[in-house]
Amino acid sequence: MSTGLPADDYRKLRDAVFATIWDELDPLEHQIEDTEKIPYDVVLPALRACGAFGLIVPREYGGSGLSIAQYLPILAEFAKIQGGIRAIVHVHNSFAHALSEIGSTAQKNEILPGAATGEKSLAFALTEPGNGTGADLSTVARREGDEYVLNGRKWLITNSDIASHFLVFAKTSDVDVSALIVPRDAPGFTIEPLPETMGCKGAEHGELTFTDVRVPASSLVGAEGEGGAHLERALEVSRVFIAASSLGTATRALELSVKYAQERVTFGKPIASRQAIQRYLAEMAADVYALRGMLADAAAKWDAGKRIPAESSLLKQFGLEAVGRVTDRALLVHGGIGYTRKYPIERLYRDARLNWLEEGTPTIQYLVAARELLDGYRFDDAFAG
Questions:
Q1: Catalytic residue among 33, 236, 346, 359
Q2: Were 26 and a residue from 32, 81, 249, 367 both cysteine, which residue would form a disulfide, CB within 3.0 to 4.6 Å?
Q3: Is 77 helix (H, G, I), strand (E, B) or coil?
Q4: pTM of the model
């Protein structure tokens, strides 16, 4: 169970992070979009100073130890600004949190204190250019004495340009998938950038190549063959985080649309007076309201120590569909000017499309949710008290 920070401490931390978001980071939007580069000399110190890197790192390792219910509103706020910055914060916190749950004591002691301050960061290396995931992986880790020897390739690995360590999933036998921690400076390990992305500009999604990379056997997370279980647990809550990102982007798109509808005048009246625009706004608000309630439910269950495989997949899927609808309608409310960079709607629209792909495509979410339902999963009775 996670109780998080006391209320007063949480408010102070949240206010400090929000101030950094809007006073220091949001003004960088046009620079990042123009250059497709995040100015790390500005962004990383700002994130460190406000505590954004240690939000869900346990307090015994120097983090804030927020509950998931406390973390989600902060992550949602990051999703209102330039998407590359949100991606940095999301991936860093997601997999620092995962390590705190699945790592050995030695692994946690090595990485988490640095992760809490942003001096170290763990990236997630699963996706491959020529394969799917799970049993279809082609990256292999062969045991040789007290070492594993890795060979293979990964790509679309977010934060690959700043991560100090990588949680790499590889086959350790014909059937077993295992997870190993590989340091950035391991001999034989190379990292190359991939082409620029549609949205979330500046966030690097690189290609990793492992050529006879040797790591100590102590780099194994858990036991051989436990990679699938580790993967499920890490992605379970991280999918909730993606939904929180969808909420933040959708909320800002709604706020901007309400403001624009009240200011934009045609035929002598604000367009907010027109029923067509009112319907768009109401439909947007319904998606935001529903998504917020689903997030609160999932966070409460996780913080109570419950597993949420069905909820997380349904939530991730609903979130990406909701933010898609909301940004579609936001563009309709703004009209042609929304297709330009005069307003953030154009960027929010592009940034939101990454949510379709992070932590599993829609087909995976439907598969996981249906599997849970067919195995007997039932929703809690919300009216039973």
A1: 359
A2: 81
A3: helix
A4: 0.95
